[in-house]
Amino acid sequence: MKRLFILIVAWLAVGTLSAQNLTRCKYWFDQNYSAAQEVTLGNSTLQFQIDATTLSKGVHCLNLHIQDAAGVWSSPRSFLFLHVPSIASAPAIYKYWFDDNTADAQNVTLTNGTLMLNASSLPVGMHTLTLQCMVGTDIRVEQHLFYKMPVPAQCTSFTFHYRIDGGDFQTVDFNSQGGAVSMSFDMLELADGTHTIDHYVTNCANTPMTVMQTDTFVRTHITQYFTLTVLSADETMGYATGSGVWPDDDPVSIEAVPHPNYHFTNWNDNSTENPRNIVLTSDTTFTAYFAYNDGVEDYSMENILVYTRPGTIMVSVEIPKPIWVYDMQGRLVAHRPDDGSTTCAIPVSSGTYVVKLGDGYLRKVAVRE
Questions:
Q1: Reduced to 3 states, what is the DSSP secondary structure of residue 142?
Q2: Which alpha helices (DSSP H) does 3-115 contain, by range?
Q3: Looking at residue 174, what is its pLDDT?
Q4: CATH of the domain at 304
Q5: Does this model's pTM top 0.70?
Q6: Domain range spanning residue 229?
Q7: DSSP string, 210-245
Q8: Are residues 184 and 242 in the same domain?
Q9: Per-residue pLDDT tens over the stretch 38-90
C-alpha cells in the first residue's frame, strides 16, 4: 500500500470551530510532529490522500487539527488506524475489539488500504487492541497495548516512560500537539493472566510532569490458528493424515498409515509415536518415513513389532521386555536387558536370526547389509 485515503467530516476534528470558515488542516503520524504536513481546505469536509510509504506495518496514530479563518487552531484529535499491506492472493477479513469487549467487535474486509479503528468512546488511560486477520483459511492474531492521552495543552514535547511487570523502562517521545501515545508492544509475548504497567511523563527538560502510576491489564488467551502439513516421504509406501489449519489450544492427532508390505519407522523429528498428538505453536510440517518389510517374518501382533533395516534389527513394543538375538546355530549374538525402552535398534551382520522377547515371543528375521 502506497497511500492512505482519509475521509473525515470536519466537525469531528475541530470541535467548536465553525465548519464554514475552515482554511487549513495540519496532520502528522504517531509522535512525529516535526514531519507535520499542511493541507489547504476548500470546504467543510476533509478529503485528501496521505502518503504512507514510509509507515511500517501495524497500528499507527493519525493526529490532526484545523485552523479557521481567524487563524485559531483547534485542539488536536487522534485516530488509531491499521496500516494494511497489499494482499495479492485474496481479500483479508479483519476483526478488532478493544480491551475484552468482544461483544462490540468490528469486522472489515480489505485487500489493501486503511482500517480506521474507532477508539473515540474509550476513556483516558491504558487499553488493549486485539486484531484478528483471516485470509482464506489462514488466521493470524495480534494484540497491542496503547495509552489514550487526555486532550493536550499547547506546550513543548514530552516523553512517556513505561515498564511492564517491573522490567526495564521504555520511552516514547511525543509532542503536546498529539493526543495519543501508541506503543509498539506485542502482548502475545506475555503469558496469559494479569500484568502491570508503570508509567509517568517527563517534559523536554526530563522533569517529571506526572507521578508514577500503575495500571493493571489482563492478557487473555487469544486462540491462534496455524497450518499443519503432514507428508509421506514416499507415497508408494504409505500416507499420513492430519493436515489442516488448527487452533493452538487443542491437540491435533496425526497418523502414518503404511501400505501392504511396508511399515512406519519414524517421523522427521525421530519420534516413533504413531498416531501422535501435536500442540501447535507455529506453522509446522511433519514427514512420515516408511520401510519395506524385508524380514523373513514381520509380525505386528500383541503390540510387538519386529522388522529390519540394513545391518539392524528393529524392535518396538508397548511394554518393555528383555531381548535376545540368536543366529541359526543357536548362538547368542546380542542381548538387551529391559531398560524401560519401548524401541530398540540392534546392529548385526547380514544373515538370518531368531529374536526372543521376554518369556515367549520368538521371531525369525533376515537382515541385509
A1: strand
A2: 10-14
A3: 63
A4: 2.60.40.3080
A5: no
A6: 225-292
A7: S--EEEEEEE-----EEEEEEEES-TTTEEEE--EE
A8: no
A9: 877 765 555 666 666 677 777 777 777 777 777 776 666 667 777 765 554 56
Q: Indicate whether 114 and 171 sit together in one domain.
A: yes
- Residue 21 pLDDT grade (very low, low, confident, very high; cuts 50, 70, 90): low
- How would residue 253 be classed by pLDDT, with cut points 50, 70 and 90? very high
Q: What's the domain count of the chain?
A: 3
Mean pLDDT on 284-295: 82
Indicate if 270 and 160 belong to the same structural domain.
no
Q: How many CA atoms lie within 13 A of 268 on its CB side?
A: 12
**207 lies in the same domain as 91:** yes
> In what helix (H) or strand (E) does residue 285 lie, and over which residues does it extend?
strand 284-292
* Residue 282 near residue 226 (C-beta atoms within 8 A): yes
Which three cell numbers mark 101?
Answer: 469487549
**β partners of residue 83:** 58, 114
Beta bridge partners of 132: 95, 141
C-alpha cell at 69: 479563518
Distance separating the N- and C-terminal Cα atoms of the chain: 60
CB atoms within 10 A of CB 53: 8
Q: Which residues pair with 138 in a beta bridge?
A: 135
Tell me, yes or no, whether 132 and 118 share the same domain.
yes
User: Do 276 and 311 lie in a common domain?
Assistant: no
Q: Cell 491489564 sits at which residue? A: 217
Would you say 296 and 364 are in contact if contact means Cβ atoms under 8 Å apart?
yes
Sign of the Cα torsion 147, 158, 209, 150 reads negative
Q: Give the Cα separation of 28 and 34 in Å (integer).
A: 8
